[in-house]
Write a structure and sequence with these properties.
The chain contains six helices and eight strands; from the N terminus they run ααβαβααββββββα. The protein has a domain of 162 residues. Helix content is 28%, strand content 16%. Strands 2, 3, 4, 5, 6 and 7 form a six-stranded mixed β-sheet that branches. A two-stranded antiparallel sheet has the order 1-8. It has 266 residues and is α/β, with parallel strands linked by helices. α1 packs across α3 and α4 packs across α5.
């Protein structure tokens, strides 16, 4: 499906940034109001609409949740860095071959009887073991460096996209790698499994780079997971959607409330 229009990155990013700020709760909503003409001839001007309400109505009018966006345009608009397509050149072939070897070795390790993932309650908790295994193996591969991507402020942060940054020493080419666990048979599912939240202070995209996702398949047997293979996906062709939501924390909900007890527990 083609997007409705091909907007310049700067224009598109202004729309997405405003939406994220207003509806994802990352920033404070502004209180901008339209100018109201002065009263003349005894006629009272119409009441001003609340600034937050006007902003929300404007964003809803864009129908952003029904649109698709090119991930490379979104990433470049917020980071100023290009998402490069995977190619058949020597540097790209070296790095993808090293990723495949690291994935195979990590899967063998985590499929063992004494694997630490056997003790986990939820499959999502196994992600960090794949991240750590891939990081160690790729960093040990000849001619490569692998680390946790720094934020714009220079901090090393595990959470947020992407998980790993790989550098081909010979060419200087940079690759971002994001491992994801996917249950066998669910690869055609429509639930959201890829997230990118554009926050300026903690943004981890700081290089022109190839962006890759490793979808690691498992059999779905809780507590006895077997990892069966992987798909290496080039994100330069990915289409993404925006889900806007209003949110509140427990602190927001309960800070002014008192806990009540049933009679039997008093």
């Amino acid at each position: 499906m083609k997007p409705e229009s091909q907007e310049p990155a700067s224009t598109l990013w202004r729309t997405v940034w405003t939406t994220a700020a207003a509806l994802l709760g990352g920033f404070v909503l502004g209180g901008v109001a339209a100018r109201v003409p002065s009263s003349r001839g005894g006629h009272r001007p119409p009441p001003q609409e609340n600034g937050d309400a006007a902003l929300v109505k404007s964003l809803l009018g864009e129908r952003l949740s029904e649109r698709e966006f090119d991930f490379p345009i979104i990433a470049e608009a917020c980071s100023g860095r290009r998402v490069l397509p995977l190619a058949q050149n020597p540097a790209h072939l070296r790095v993808t071959a090293a990723i495949e070897r690291a994935l195979a070795a990590t899967i063998r390790e985590l499929n063992a009887e004494n694997s630490p993932v056997r003790k986990l309650r939820r499959i999502n908790e196994a992600s960090r073991f794949f991240e750590e295994g891939l990081l160690a193996r790729l960093n040990a591969a000849p001619g490569l460096r692998c680390d946790v991507p720094p934020t714009r402020a220079g901090n090393r942060q595990r959470s947020g996209y992407p998980d790993l940054r790989i550098t081909d020493v010979r060419s200087g080419a940079v690759f971002y790698l994001d491992p994801k666990l996917v249950e066998r048979g669910s690869e055609a599912g429509t639930l959201r499994t890829f997230y990118f939240e554009p926050k300026d202070g903690t943004l981890k995209i700081t290089d022109d780079a190839v962006h890759l996702l490793a979808g690691i398949e498992h059999d779905g047997r809780d507590g006895e997971w077997t990892f069966t293979g992987w798909r290496l996906v080039d994100l330069s062709t990915l289409k993404v959607r925006l889900k806007a939501e209003f949110q509140a924390s427990n602190a927001d909900l309960y800070r002014k409330s008192a806990l009540s007890h049933p009679e039997s527990t008093r």
